[in-house]
Amino acid sequence: MELRESVLVLLLKFRKAEDIVRALNVRLEDVVSALNSLEAEGLVVKREKGLIFKKEVYELTDRGYNEAQKLLNKLKELSEKIRLARERGDLKEVEDLLRTHALLLSLLVAFGMIDILMLSSFEDSADIDFDFDIVEF
Fold first, then answer.
1. For residue 134, is pLDDT > 70?
2. Nearest 5°: phi and psi at 15?
3. Are 11 and 60 in contact, with CB atoms under 8 Å apart?
4. pTM of the predicted model as reported, rounded to 2 decimal places
5. 31 touches 20 (CB < 8 A)
6. Phi-psi category of 42—alpha, beta or left, where left has phi over 0 and alpha has psi -120 to 50?
7. Across residues 19-43, what is the average pLDDT?
8. What is the arithmetic mean of pLDDT over 50-71?
9. What percent of the chain has a predicted confidence (pLDDT) above 90?
10. What is the DSSP letter of 113?
11. What is the full DSSP assignment across 7-60?
């Protein structure tokens, strides 16, 4: 999943670019660029919110919502694969899934699909450095 898709799916949860930046631990400029691209594609609309302190917020269009839901379902499938492999005790498969989909870990955590404590305990046993900040949502 590229940044564009990550931003799109996070719009199911957040409306401000700054919140998406925190969730993905990326630069604001990159998120704004992705949002502008999504807006040009008709998947997102930008609105101003607030009377005195104006803030830009982003909302999914119907088409954007449908695409974001498809991406969210793919994330759910991945989290289920990880959960089942962990239940079977197949740490090799869990490690392979985490390494293959390392860029999606922040999304899995943001949507509560994977337990950050499981990741930290797995990091110790599998010698993997996930290298992302834990962000409270």
1. no
2. -120, -15
3. yes
4. 0.79
5. yes
6. left
7. 95
8. 93
9. 52
10. S
11. HHHHTTT--SHHHHHHHHT--HHHHHHHHHHHHHTTSEEEEEE-SSS-EEEEEE
